[in-house]
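name: query_chain
kind: protein
chains: 1
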Amino acid sequence: MNWAEYLGVLDRGIEVLASRAADQASPETAGDGPVSFDPSRRTSAPNECLIGVGWHWDGAQEGPRPIEHSGICLNDKGLPLPGQPGRSFQGVTDLALDPPHALLDDWLRVVGEDAAPVRFFARFTLVVEDASPDSCLGLIVLLARLNGVERSEVPEQWVRYARQWEHGASRVADPFRAWGPLLTALSHGYWDMAAFRSDAAGDTAAASQQALAASLSRAWLGGLRFTTALLRAGSPPEPIAEAALCAEAERAHAFLNYEHQAYLQTLQQAETLQLLLPMEGGIGRRKIVDACLLEETTATGAQKIFLRNDREHTWLGDGFGLMGLYRPGLAGSGDDMSLSVDPATGVHLQELWERLEALEDQAWNGEQPCGKPRSVAGYPGGRRPDSGAPSPDQPWWDDRGTYTLLAAPRCVSDGRLGSRLDWRKDVLEALWECYRPVRFLNMVDHTGALRPLLDCRSEPIDDTGKGWLMLRWPRADMILPVEPSSATPRSLQDVLSALQPVLLTPTLQRCLAACVAVQEGAGGDRHALASLPTPESFDFIQVAGGYVLAHADGVAVLDDWRSTPLCEVGIREAVDRVADRLRLLRSQGEQAGDLLGLLGKRIRRGRFLGFGGGAILDRLAEIRVCLRQGLHATEPALDDPRLAELHLCLERRWGIASELQRIDRTIDAMEQTLRSYAELRSNRLINFLTVIGFPLALFAGFFQFAVAGMPHDWSGFSAWFRGDNGQGPHWPAIAVFLGLSLVAMVLIWLSSPLLRWLGRLRLRLSGSLPNRTGNDEGRGGRLVDRASPSAPPNDTPRAGTRS
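structure:
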């Protein structure tokens, strides 16, 4: 059978798979489905075909031994057997195309007369861990080889594409015209992610497993139809031919569009960094790559494709070379925590794998199962290289020793989670400790000493609570004599790493900000990933000869060793001017606050401010003048626009404008309070004089005769007052005058409350104001409207009251 004939037969076999999937979804004919999800399966039962799962050898303590399979085990992991010659395979497609002769003979023996796709799909159940491009194409190639199709007839470009895909290559010109991204989005679009929950039990767990199997059957059916349509049309995997488009292709485009929208939304909450990773085969050579660390709540298949090919949201403009993905809903599956690098970047994560394994050993504290270890290159022969002890049953996956993909351990045999590490506290912090860009960076600080950047500390700026840090790049001859430190390079490889060029990435800028930032509740590592200042918390300004980082807690200056010398004097002067302003505002603000407290104390005690209020106003005016004089004396220099920009940035970060506004508002409020209080006291005095003076002035004209003959000089006043010569005061008239005046004063004083009472009485009589009775006031102050028909009559006695 040639390739073209095989593809025609394969279509009929896929329809048999579709019939079994329909029977599985129907309640009347529900039974064992054509696809089963079991990523931890070790051996195959009769009438089962394991794809991407299963073990070829058992790593028992007495030594590895082959595992006998009753069905087919199409899994490249673990081949060749330990101690046996043979080549390793890059994916199940690579294995199915050219398997070892003994393995191929074993497959032919198992299938017998059921190698034809129609009979194969009618008999075998597929046991899988995913529906990836490599798995789908691997099954197609397996059936082709079982039906006698020569290896040379299988399209080489498809095999090469699957091999590169499985190896992690994901650089594509257009994801919407590439078979890999489209098939991945198509298969994930069918998955029922609620069925992956690991906390279900009883009937819920059984229903979840059935829903999961049904969704996987649809995913495999769609993937096989889509792939065979492209193969029949002779289309390459990238770019796919327009003539090969079918219903499944259109559905794949729709799912891929959805996943692109989900990617853009997820990217907004992701942590993006620039990390320094070691290069494969390069002694001491390390490379900066953009990294994206995210948590995925909506399962997508093409997210890695968009990350690898994102030119817009990466600092280097070459896509995210490292991806960290956390899927809390897939705990225990091995896919809940993963970190991968793009093989095209030429970097690896071996040090991180070793660090994670060490953390697992600490977390398990010797209780990690080690009876049947999973085969990984990091533990050759199922043994630890350092001690020879058995390796864990479920270690972190190392991607066959390439360390381009690290995946969390699966559940152990008794059902417990294989990993006891926390994603943020353990995994991400281990990633940061291994590959942070300042790990080998040494700087000359303000003291002139060469030390690791992690050990650099800022010096305080007097009476401001801010810090000043001056840094310079070291010369090559200064690298070796570094002060002892945990981060000090010791080996030749570390020294070469320290001498490599450094890019001032946004992540490196955050590390510089950490050197001056003051951590509240200090107790942790200020250079830990969780403690790094955010990019929005500082400004990174380029000046002549270097850079200045302005943070709320201080300033870091970096001399970049350029041809233009760094204007350190001008930078320090600009910083000192802002610091002087900060000290000025704090001192004057304290004085204004003290005056505010004094003013409140006097008002609460009811003391007449009098001359004290005028003194407070004078002191407030003095504070205003001092503020303006100090601000004028600390105006920024305008001859260098970059220094002027630095001045403005520091004022914004240190809160100069907000502090000045606060002081101005405080002074304005106190002045307004003093003026209002003075006006109130003046109005009270005017009212008092009106009450006293108006009656006296009114009745004085009528009783002028009472003081007739009073002399204008004091010499005759005493004689007149005694009534000598028959002239003197008319005392009865004076008494009447004083009495009438006093009565008028009382009436004027009572007129205002009397008028208010009369007004309320008029409203009450007219029915516009409810009546307040004594009993109602005694019972909680309720108001009873006499005019209201719902009000009880007044002559009706109430229970518990006197009639």
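note: Residues 440-566 form one domain.
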